[in-house]
TrEMBL record:
It catalyses: P(1),P(4)-bis(5'-adenosyl) tetraphosphate + H2O = 2 ADP + 2 H(+). GO terms for molecular function: bis(5'-nucleosyl)-tetraphosphatase (symmetrical) activity; metal ion binding; nucleotide binding. InterPro entries: Diverse_Catalytic_Enzymes (IPR051094), HD/PDEase_dom (IPR003607), HD_domain (IPR006674), HDIG_dom (IPR006675), YqeK (IPR005249). This is bis(5'-nucleosyl)-tetraphosphatase (symmetrical).
Amino acid sequence: MKDLSYYKEIIKEKLSKKRFEHSLRVAETALEMAKSRGLDEEQVHLAALLHDYAKDLPSDELLRIGRKKGIILYKAEEVQPDLLHGPVGAWLLKQELEITDEAVLQAIRYHTTGHYPMTELDKIIYLADLLEPGRTYEGIASLRAICAENIDKGLLFAFDSTLRYVLERKMLIHPLTVEARNWLLLQLHDNFNDE
């Protein structure tokens, strides 16, 4: 794998200034969250830095790549193409930058929808994207507080918040988010019963 500074320069050129700065903050947040979790810091840093690799692509380009490469698996992705920036980004990173670390690609692929079962890396990238210091939305203080206590409970709060947001706007719910939430809820329930 190339030095992280190489990837930083790539995304600096590829993304808007605002998106680039967001990516740097996500990387800082993810590294901080990963400290006590025994994760490979290089994987965490790379996945966080590159998570929005395809975010600035226009919807028609996301759809074109998604259709051509068989990446679109759900109707929600056709109707709301922004949901494709994770899966398309993972595919492009493999093709264009020759990223082959499947754990990194998976965390990028699912950083918007979640999936199950989620690895610790998947959880960190999903949450760091929502928690980075530049984010200011209703409920972020609660999410930060919960994540400081328990990452899994924070992830459940994040899924619930996402579902409320989508329902209020009459948007399609991505099936992977529902499956990820149900899987996590069962994990938390099982852990609670084991105590």
